[in-house]
Specification:
heterodimer, A: 89 residues, alpha+beta, 3 helices, 5 strands, B: 287 residues, Beta Polymerase, domain 2, 2 domains, PqqD_sf (chain A)
C-alpha cells in the first residue's frame, strides 16, 4: 500500500455541488482534467492521505475491498503516471 | 469547466508563473477574499492580481509565452489605466493590476506595504499570497465605492460590521498608502476631505453620478498635474481604437472610428467641452 500526495504543481478544485467531481490541472498550462463518480472518490481519498485507498473506496461505495482492489490500484497507478498524484512510499 | 473552477485555476496558474519568473503578485478580490469577510462563496467574472509595478512587464511576457493574450492594455481600460485584461483559451480572464484605483501613494511604495503584510491563502490547492485582512477590507470598500455601491454587502461586512479596532487598522493602512479619500467615500465620511485632491472624483464615483460629463470632469480634476490632466481629458474624448478592435473582433474601419467620434459628440459635446476645459484649467493652476 502506498501513501499519495497532490504534486506541488497540480491545481485541484472540488466544487461544492451535489455532483461527485474533481477538476485537476497541471500548472501552469494544463490541460484540465475532470474526474467523476468513483474516479473522483478514489482521487480525493488518495489525496487525503488514505493508505488503504481500496478499503476506503469500498467503505464509501459499499463493496468489499477484495472486489475492487485490483481496479483501484491500477487506477491509482494511472493517476500517478499522468502526474495527478505522487506516491510517497 | 465551471466558471468558478476556471477562475481558481487562473489564480493557481498565475501563481506558478510568478514563482517561476520571480514576480511578486498578490491575489485580490474574488475567491482570494478571506472567508471571514464573506457570507458565502464569492464568484467573479475574472481573476484579479495586483503586481509589483516593476515586475509587470516580466509577468506579461511570461503570460504571453504560456498561451495568454492581451485583450485590453492598461491604456484601454478605465481612466485610471490601472489594469490590463488577458484571456486564455481554457482559463478565466485575468485582470493584471499595476495599481489599485483609490490608492494614491506611489504604486511601488503601496505595493511594498501590502506585500510586507501578506499571508498565503489556498486557491485550487496552491498557496497564493493575499493581502492582510485590513488590506482586504480596504480594497473591498474602495472597490465598492468606485462602483457607487455604498450599500454593497462588502461595505457592510468590511466596515459597518467591523469592530473599532478593525476599523482603526483599515484607517491607518489607508493613511499610509494614500487611500484615505477613497476609504472615506466608501464609509460615509467624505465630507471630512472637502477640498482635498480626489474629493470631487470620489464624490461623483461613490454617489453613482449618472452624468458622464461630470464623472469625466472629476477624473480630469483628480489628475496630479497639468500634463496628466490633459492626457486624461484627451483619452476620455477620443474613441479608443484598441478597445473598439477588441469589441468588434477586427480593426475598426475609418468610418467606424468617425462614427464613434460622432456618437461622443451627440452625448453633449458642448457640456463636455466646457467641463473638461474648466477642469483642465483648475488642474493646471494647482501645480
Amino acid at each position: 500500500m502506498s501513501r499519495f500526495v497532490v504534486p506541488p504543481r497540480v491545481a485541484f478544485v472540488v466544487p461544492r455541488t451535489d455532483a461527485t467531481q474533481v477538476f485537476l490541472m497541471a500548472l501552469p498550462d494544463g490541460p484540465p482534467f475532470i474526474l467523476t463518480d468513483t474516479a473522483a472518490v478514489i482521487w480525493v481519498l488518495a489525496a487525503d492521505g488514505e493508505t488503504d485507498v481500496a478499503r476506503a473506496v469500498g467503505d464509501v461505495v459499499g463493496v468489499p475491498r477484495e472486489a475492487i482492489v485490483t481496479e483501484v490500484e491500477q487506477y491509482l497507478r494511472d493517476l500517478v503516471s499522468k502526474g495527478l498524484l505522487s506516491a510517497t512510499e | 469547466m465551471p466558471w468558478s473552477v476556471g477562475i481558481r485555476f487562473a489564480h493557481a496558474s498565475l501563481q506558478v508563473l510568478a514563482e517561476d519568473h520571480g514576480v511578486d503578485l498578490l491575489h485580490i478580490k474574488g475567491p482570494s477574499v478571506d472567508a471571514s469577510l464573506l457570507d458565502g462563496p464569492r464568484e467573479s467574472i475574472d481573476a484579479d492580481v495586483l503586481v509589483r509595478p516593476e515586475h509587470v512587464p516580466r509577468l506579461l511576457d511570461a503570460m504571453h509565452r504560456h498561451g495568454w493574450s492581451t485583450q485590453y492594455r492598461f491604456e484601454d481600460g478605465s481612466a485610471f489605466e490601472h489594469a490590463s485584461t488577458l484571456v486564455h483559451p481554457i482559463l478565466a480572464p485575468v485582470d493584471v493590476h499595476r495599481r489599485f484605483p483609490g490608492i494614491d501613494a506611489d504604486a511601488s511604495d503601496a505595493f511594498d506595504r501590502l506585500w510586507s503584510e501578506r499571508h498565503p491563502a489556498e486557491l485550487a490547492g496552491v498557496p497564493c499570497p493575499v493581502p492582510s485582512l485590513p488590506a482586504q477590507r480596504l480594497l473591498l470598500i474602495v472597490h465598492a465605492a468606485r462602483s457607487g455601491a455604498l450599500r454593497h454587502p462588502d461595505i457592510r461586512r468590511c466596515w459597518v460590521d467591523a469592530t473599532d479596532t478593525q476599523r482603526d487598522e483599515v484607517v491607518r493602512l489607508a493613511d499610509d498608502i494614500g487611500a484615505s479619500v477613497a476609504l472615506a467615500a466608501g464609509t460615509g465620511r467624505l465630507d471630512e476631505f472637502v477640498g482635498e485632491p480626489g474629493y470631487d472624483l470620489w464624490k461623483v464615483l461613490s454617489t453613482g453620478e449618472r452624468s458622464q460629463a461630470r464623472i469625466w470632469a472629476a477624473r480630469v480634476r483628480a489628475a496630479p498635474n497639468r500634463r496628466a490632466a490633459l492626457r486624461t481629458a484627451v483619452r476620455l474624448v477620443i474613441p479608443n481604437r484598441h478597445r473598439m478592435e477588441a469589441s468588434l473582433g477586427r480593426p475598426p474601419s475609418a468610418r467606424e472610428v468617425a462614427s464613434a467620434y460622432g456618437t461622443s459628440a451627440r452625448r453633449g459635446a458642448k457640456e463636455l467641452l466646457a467641463v473638461v476645459r474648466s477642469a483642465t484649467d483648475r488642474a493646471g493652476g494647482r501645480r
